[in-house]
Amino acid sequence: MNQKKQIFISIVAAFLVLILLYFIFIYNRNKGGNLSQGGNNNYQNVKTSETSSLITQSTSSNALTTVPGGTREVIQEKIATPDVNSSVPQNVARPTTVLPAEGNALRQFEIKAQEGKFIPSIIVVNEGDVVNLVLNAVDSDYNIYFPDFGNVILAKKGTNGRGQFTASPYGQYKFFCDQKTTPTCPPNMSGTFIINK
Q1: Nearest-angstrom CA–CA distance, 167 and 84
Q2: Do 47 and 14 lie in a common domain?
Q3: What does the radius of gyration of the chain's CA atoms come to, in whole angstroms?
Q4: Do 64 and 21 belong to one domain?
Q5: 135, 45 Cβ separation under 8 angstroms
Q6: How many domains are contained in the chain?
Q7: Are 155 and 181 in a shared domain?
Q8: In this structure, what is the dihedral angle of CA atoms 136, 173, 57, 54, given to the nearest 10 degrees?
Q9: Do 16 and 71 sit in the same domain of this protein?
């Protein structure tokens, strides 16, 4: 009888763990956070609605509909979306991983933040791709802020920050190191994010 009781308790415990995981998933989904949360304290992902002092609404003749404080414009220079083995122009990020994902792709990029610059500083994806970013803060604390998507990925000196979001809609965007989030960010540290149709 003891063995049956132990099996019953194990099944109930496993069921309770599954229910708990389900509620955590629902809570995180309803919170609106679309970045994966890291498992250690070396980096932190933040969803923010604040607009950086560096960002202003795009007023150029190339501007496309965007969010307040957004940077979305018509793509200035057509750059093909790279794959892992693609030859890319200088300063264009080559993905470290490309996996099929529901008609689009999951693309992972590693971006270095060093000496006040993003290296490389141009990221190119296709509309609808899931973008995984790893930010490597080499010599200081940095972040990478996408105002049009409301995403900030933080990384302390010598660590990696990670974030994920879906690239949509098409257009050319700017990303920045936001001084409000990380005061050590140098002014005008920025890059270009291109979403091809």
Answers
A1: 18
A2: no
A3: 20
A4: no
A5: no
A6: 2
A7: yes
A8: 20
A9: no
In angstroms, the CA 180 to CA 71 distance is 18
* Parallel/antiparallel/unpaired status of strands 130-137 and 104-114: parallel
| Rounded Cα distance, 7 and 17, in Å | 15
Write out pLDDT tens, residues 142-187.
Answer: 999 999 998 999 999 999 999 999 999 999 999 999 999 999 999 9
Residues 97 and 179 in one domain: yes
Are 110 and 81 within one domain? yes
154: left (phi over 0), alpha (psi -120 to 50) or beta: beta
State the residue for tokens 């920050």.
161
Instruction: Write the CATH number for 61.
Output: 2.60.40.420
Using CA atoms, how far residue 177 sits from 2, 58, 68, 101, in Å, is: 60, 18, 18, 29
The CA-to-CA distance between both ends of the chain, in Å, stands at 64
The encoded tokens of residue 158 equal 């010598």
Which token pair is 156? 């302390």
Give me the domain span that covers residue 17: 1-31
Q: What is the pLDDT of residues 123-138, one digit of tens each?
A: 999 999 999 999 999 9
Report the run of H or E that residue 10 belongs to, with start and end: helix 2-31
The secondary structure of residue 66, as a DSSP letter, is -
> Considering only CA atoms, which of 93, 143, 89 is closest in space to residue 113?
143
Q: Indicate the SS3 state at residue 78.
A: coil
